[in-house]
Request: fold
Amino acid sequence: MAQGNKPEGWPVYIRMHEKDSDLYLIEKSRKGDDSAFEALVIRHQDRVFNICRYMLGERDADDAAQDTFIKAYRNLGSFTPSPGFSAWISRIAVNTCIDYRRRPSHLSLTAATPEGEEYTRELSSGAPGPESSLESKRAGLAVAEAIGRLPGKLRAVVVLNEIEGFSYEEVAAQLEIPVGTVKSRLSRAREVLRRLLSFAREQI
Amino acid sequence: MDCKRVKALMEEGTGALPGSEQNALREHLEACEGCARESGELSVMRSLLSAAPRHKAPAGFSARVMARIRLEEEAAREPGFFRWLMSMPLHIKAAEAAAAVLAISIGVWSAGFLSERIAAGQTTENYTELASLEELDTVPPGSMGDMYLSIKENGNEQ
Reply:
């Protein structure tokens, strides 16, 4: 069973929330209902996996995403409704990815997976569609590859703000940095991305 | 509206701006070449980033997470020492296994060494020495034992 602390401090309107809301599912999970936690996993797995995929690359993403949910399950007792489950689980995902990146290289498979090769493979294996769709896909994959080449700190703010749509304040809370730092990192990240994408266009 | 305010608005998005500010922003961008260029570059970048693919969790992901959770719950019901042992990180577990193998090897080697010594009779000799009469205390004079020994010695002499 998860941390069994009852959410007694939560306001009444949250305790009586709709039966499909995150908060209702969290409350049930805290009482030991594993199917409620599974519903939470299903609801948020794509977002968590996407964050891990951009932060770590293909091979470690699955393990890191699983670890994220395991940590969330263990720490349900410390969850507070204020940031919301989505922001909370994203924060755990980013921290898990940072831990993965700090691990010794022999424990990580990421080093052996250059992002560029991976995305090139994805593109070449895709079914041919209309020209505009292919161009759009090509552009998207080029951006994804460029994001994969950003330094970790810049990559985290781009993934959380530009890809996942969290506000500056939410990203600041997730990464435990000031809002001003989020903005300056985003600005630097855009500059690096611009250079990387210009270089990629020149190569083509 | 000055360049600083325009830059802040560009970064934060202009969707929720009131009409009057939207107009002021448009006028500034028409007049200021630097801000117009930055705004254009930012729009292109945002458009590119919105085209970045979103990766979905692989099939069976939630089932794998729940299987791991159930495994943890089962381990949590195990006795304390076993749970503590299983909760160790992988490299600690490997060190524990190596230490256990080493301890067992030393035990087996020591047992073999002792049994060789016993077979060679060294230990038996020690016990014989301990049990010899020379190690016993001498009989006190005038005691029953002394009288018995004197009679026995006299009888032997005769």
Q: What stands out?
A: The helical segments of chain B are 3-12, 19-31, 33-50, 61-76, 80-86, 90-119, 122-131, 144-157. The mean pLDDT of chain B is 78. Chain B has eight helices and no strands.
